[in-house]
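Protein data sheet
==================
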Amino acid sequence: MADDWILVDAPARSLFSVLADPSQYEVFVVGNSQIRRFDPRWPQPGTRFHHLLGVKPLVVAGSSLSLATDYETYLVLETGMGILGATLTTFYLMETTDGTKLEVREEPWSGLVARFWSKAVDIALDRRNRLLLRRLKRLSEEQFTRERSVLPGPGSGEGGDPADQGTPAEP
């Protein structure tokens, strides 16, 4: 089983919003070359998105199925790789005082992948998943920056501390 983690300077909700957007998987998943289509209800359990893995001419069509989520702290996927089988991929998000700890676990699930899983596969996935985590960290921190830039701030008159909202003009 490949198990890696990274600390992200963003709240879990920002991280999860990236995981909840199937179009982002081709950006952060190493080896995912294209999202072909997806269920608009993703990541509701039972929904899936279809993707291509690899680099031409060695491309395999697969799909990822959401098995479980609480929409906040975890997402469990059956990550299908077509004729190669599937892995069980779990994302865990835990807020800490220093940011959000993001952990990814990947283990054999079915098919050839499960049959021929080995220490060498673990090592290769460990390297791949460290890059995946760095990409996901970057996307999540960018998402958080965008979210902060649209939130009303003090003195804007749009929420925040009522004392900072100014006083009405004198007639």
Observations:
- Confidence is low (pLDDT under 50) at residues 159-171.
- The chain is about 30% helix and 35% strand.
- The two ends are 71 Å apart (CA to CA).
